[in-house]
Design brief:
CATH class of the largest domain: Alpha Beta
Pfam families: HTH_6, SIS
Distance between the termini: 67 Å
Radius of gyration: 21 Å
Shape: globular
GO molecular function, one term: DNA binding
CATH superfamily of the largest domain: Glucose-6-phosphate isomerase like protein, domain 1
Keywords: DNA-binding, Transcription, Transcription regulation
Number of strands: 7
Largest sheet: 5 strands, parallel
Protein name: DNA-binding MurR/RpiR family transcriptional regulator
CATH architecture of the largest domain: 3-Layer(aba) Sandwich
Strand content: 5-15%
InterPro entries: Homeodomain-like_sf, HTH_RpiR, RpiR-like, RpiR-like_SIS, SIS_dom, SIS_dom_sf, WH-like_DNA-bd_sf
Helix content: 55-70%
CATH topology of the largest domain: Rossmann fold
Length: 288
């Protein structure tokens, strides 16, 4: 094997997170059709994992040959090699919580005991917080706070892993006496709740890959009503980003397959308290 070939092989993404980061780093320079399949791949990784070249190309609206060019653009020798990365991601994602706990138990049985587990989660949280502190755009944050502070009602939308963040936002807004509505209903009345939103309101929507379908559909519905959305997500290719007036990209680190929400929570707290302070300074506070 030549030195050039060996160097190229070292640069080929071998796991999904590295692949995702590589695509995002190159997104501005990708040709139009390659960018189209890249966006589809990050939005629909399960389809890429087990679809055929023909079915994937049809769903993404490109020619099958574009899949090969996409793979080669990332350093793979063909689409099948790229597809293996997506299949490995699915295998890891589908590992049960029992398997994850077994991995953690193995760490705990080492010399450091359960302290090793604690330190692992602290390290993951620290990584997430350091990353968002480094990358957050100050002007972007100010724009989002200004948009939310003008809203008559702030709707909060999230499901599954993102739900604890949404719940805290709604709690904090209520304590700040800011009118808000957490979009959840045991009676299945989410659509009716969303129907009350107007362009004078605003939404905070949160979703991360693999993106809760209900969150995306409800964000789509509320955006069609002309309601501005501030989104927290993990990619410019996220389906949530396309509906958002302003969106933040948050990359959370994980430990043993359990992903941190530290950076997301820090951003959520900053937005919430920032809105409260903005309203206080302008004398515009409403009862929750």
């Amino acid at each position: 094997m030549s030195l050039d070939r060996a160097t190229m092989d070292e640069r080929v993404p071998r796991d999904f997170e590295t692949l995702r980061a590589t695509i995002l780093d190159r997104r501005e320079s990708l040709p139009k059709r390659i960018a189209q399949i890249a966006a589809y791949a990050l939005d629909n990784p399960d389809d890429i994992a087990f679809g055929t070249a023909a079915s994937i190309a049809a769903s993404a609206g490109v020619q099958p040959s574009t899949l090969i060019r996409f793979a080669q653009q990332l350093g793979f020798d063909g689409f099948t090699s790229l597809q293996q990365v997506f299949r490995e991601r699915l295998r890891e994602r589908n590992s049960s919580y029992d398997e994850r706990l077994q991995a953690l138990r193995a760490k705990a049985e080492g010399a450091a005991g359960h302290r090793a587990i604690f330190d692992g989660f602290v390290a993951a949280a620290s990584t997430s917080l350091n990353d968002i502190s480094r990358t957050l755009d100050d002007a972007h944050l100010e724009d989002a706070i200004s948009l939310l502070a003008k809203a008559e009602t702030i709707y909060v939308l999230a499901k599954r892993r993102s739900y604890p963040v949404a719940s805290y936002i709604a709690y904090a807004l209520g304590k700040l006496k800011i009118r808000n509505q957490l979009i959840e209903s045991a009676a299945g009345l989410n659509a009716e709740m969303i129907a009350f939103a107007t362009p004078a309101d605003a939404v905070i929507a949160i979703s991360f890959s693999p993106y809760a379908p209900a969150t995306i559909e409800e964000a789509r519905s509320i955006s069609e009503q002309g309601v501005p959305i501030v989104a927290i997500t993990d990619s410019s290719f996220s389906p949530l980003a396309q509906f958002a007036s302003i969106w933040f990209e948050v990359a959370e680190a994980d430990f043993a397959g359990f992903r941190s929400l530290s950076a997301t929570m820090a951003l959520a707290m900053a937005l919430t308290v920032g809105v409260g302070e903005k309203r206080r300074s302008t004398g515009r506070r409403r009862k929750a």
